[in-house]
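## retry 2 of 3
previous attempt timed out at serialization; input unchanged, resubmitting
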Amino acid sequence: MPPLLTRDLVLRRRRLREAVPGPRPPEQHEAGGRPLRSVEGTVVEASPHLLVLAAPDGSEVRLPISANAFIWHAGAAGAGALQPGRDVIVRPTGTGGLAAERIWVDITRVTGVIAGRSGHVLEVDAGPHRGRTALVIPAEAMSSIRVRHPLLETGSLIDVIGVRRGGEIHGLQPASKSPQPASHAEPARARRRSGSVPTILRGTATWYDPARSGYAERHGAAYPALDSHGDAGGCGTGPPSPLPLLSIASELHVRNDCTGLATRVPIIECGCLAARFCDRCVRCGTSPRGRVLELTRTAFVDLGGDLDAGCFNVTARVGA
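## retry succeeded, writing output
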């Protein structure tokens, strides 16, 4: 690869890392409905009608709470879940809306390969970019999680939505509502590409918490087919993917097929585990293929996704 192109990729990635998280420009919607503007932060104080947050950039955000707001904290909860110090992500009432319509409290997700187990505690390897996480599965959640992940043994894939409790992550429900045909993570096999690669991708979009990856970017996507040359660096131990190869800072035009909302999303890291899962989203009909993108929480919510649902059907266009 010419040195000039490699240097250009480095500069683009540096600009992404140095960008201060903030509102996304409204012109990003292109074809499709305008995206929403989610808000992330830590609860400073809350009442039944007002939520005050400390945003990641240090600013204070004050949001009225809609009369019909839904609050999630390990399931449906009331305003009492909005305790100071808790992490929240808020979806507003609509494009340009100022009131909180849906609030997720201390929600997180653990996706990876089980590396070890001791009773109800699993050690989950989330790949080279995200490291390992201790996941506690409470007794009351074990049966529902086993419906989608029956083995829960070393080498098995797992993907659960949970909540942070006292410094621990408690898994509460399987993140996917459709079965995962292959219970074990298969080793990477060489795959030869043939024919043309697609420029329009249709399949399943999931979400992840970028804070667990150590990345500052809060609006972006993890993609399972990074170019191994230059700044992209490939996907390490991830299996080969038939998707088109892209680089860090490349943009996709992403549309939630269930809501019609669309926006441009930059690729900020490798989603090396997405290619190992064979499940499909069933939010608004069955998606035509498995996982093609892992969106950050803000990007997922901006497109109308419900974090507790785990996925939506997506159309992504390369070269936005």
